[in-house]
UniProtKB/TrEMBL annotation:
Binding positions (ATP): G11, P12, A13, A14, A15, G16, K17, S18, T19
Regions that span the bilayer: none
Top enzyme class: transferase
Gene: cmk
Identification of the protein by name: Cytidylate kinase
Length: 226
């Protein structure tokens, strides 16, 4: 690919966004920005500080005190808050089940979006989240909305937990995914929504490689149309 593109990937929880976004970024030598990791980092910090997750001002203050860095590491992307590695801490179920409360506040989102847009100025970028095609990169060259059945998504998370040696309950995961998607879709500020010009891909019966190939061919078609 000659042109440095912006590729936006949105969709509900566990649709495969970060897995495919990471691979596409590697293949195209682009940077990868996991915006969910940024909301998770703030949530972790808020839980540590015993902040009131309903208090937008308190959360915004915590965010302003926090430099959130996303850096490539040997075993995947590292997430740092003010230089401290919190890559594993932001994936606990406590953070996962609290993050959509933090992410619903408009002032928090405005500050996050500013930071995400600054990251994207660095060149070719693959960014994944919930509002990338609708708010963060409204002029992205490629917009993808990934989805998959909730049963398949719960199964994928379950297998991921088991492969990491964690215990896992597939029915509980399914309930948590349904609840988080509901909160993310029903909030007023930049809800989870397919952008009008996004291409929807149902990955329920697609492999990771299939999804990656489809998105790269869409990007190549766009490039040729330039
Ligand atoms: O990977 P997973 O689907 O579990 O979620 P994530 O991408 O790490 O995002 C965690 C949470 O952050 C989401 O459930 C949303 O509440 C929030 N988020 C958001 O509001 N906007 C984004 N652009 C990305 C994430
Ligand atoms: O970022 P998001 O929450 O959308 O999903 P993910 O963390 O990238 O993917 C959830 C799990 O589904 C990972 O363990 C992937 O390996 C797996 N998976 C996938 O991403 N795509 C498929 N087509 C099949 C499985």
């Amino acid at each position: 690919m000659k042109k440095q593109m912006q590729i936006a990937i949105d969709g509900p929880a566990a649709a495969g966004k970060s897995t495919v976004a990471k691979i596409i970024a590697e293949k195209l030598s682009y940077i990868y920005i996991d915006t969910g990791a940024m909301y998770r980092a703030l949530t972790y910090k808020a839980l540590q500080a015993q902040a009131d997750l309903e208090d937008a001002d308190e959360l915004l203050q915590l965010l302003r005190e926090s430099i959130i860095d996303l850096k490539p590491g040997e075993a995947g992307q590292l997430v740092l808050i003010n230089g401290k590695d919190v890559t594993d801490e932001i994936r606990t179920s406590e953070v996962t089940n609290s993050v959509s409360f933090v992410a619903k506040h408009a002032p928090v989102r405005e500050e996050m979006v500013k930071r995400q847009q600054l990251f994207a100025e660095k060149g070719g970028v693959v960014m994944d989240g919930r509002d990338i095609g609708t708010h963060v990169l409204p002029n992205a060259d490629v917009k993808i909305f990934l989805k998959a059945s909730v049963e398949e998504r719960a199964k994928r998370r379950h297998l991921e937990n088991i492969s990491k040696g964690f215990s896992s309950d597939i029915e509980k995961l399914k309930e948590e995914i349904i609840l988080r998607d509901k909160r993310d879709s029903e909030r007023e500020a930049a809800p989870l929504k397919k952008a009008e010009d996004a291409i929807e891909l149902d990955t329920t019966s697609l492999s990771i490689a299939d999804v990656v190939d489809q998105i790269i061919s869409i990007a190549k078609e766009r490039e040729q149309a330039w």
